[in-house]
Amino acid sequence: MNTDAQAGKGTYLLIVRLDRQTTLQVGKLGEFRFLRGWYAYAGSALGPGGLKARLARHRRAEKRLHWHIDYLLQRATLEATWQIADPRKLECAWAAAVQGLPGARTPVPGFGASDCPCATHLAFFAQRPADRQIQAALAGRSPAGAEIRCAPCP
Q: For the chain, how many structural domains are there in total?
């Protein structure tokens, strides 16, 4: 029996909508201008509580600002989450997959990537990417046969 799946450890992708251009201080990373549009952020939840706890935290309005994404979520709306229960850290692969989607741009170098060699774990889109595009991109960077779930996605 896979205890990691039971614990819900895994990787996630947040789809976030920002309705107005804004400038934000992102922790020690610095101050950045965020354009109106859509953002996709890849992260992992491999510690205690796993995906359930991490995604619940991202949905909460009141929280201590800890991760880079916390600063963006102060002003943006979390629209959907994609997730996979797998003990491997897939966030770098998922971030790269999303950066490969049509229209993706890098809004903030180093965002969410302070513990890895990635350029960023955040992608910007002027228009929301189609769910089928996201699903295909993530599936191409995930273990074969793995279940990738989306909520709320049709």
A: 1
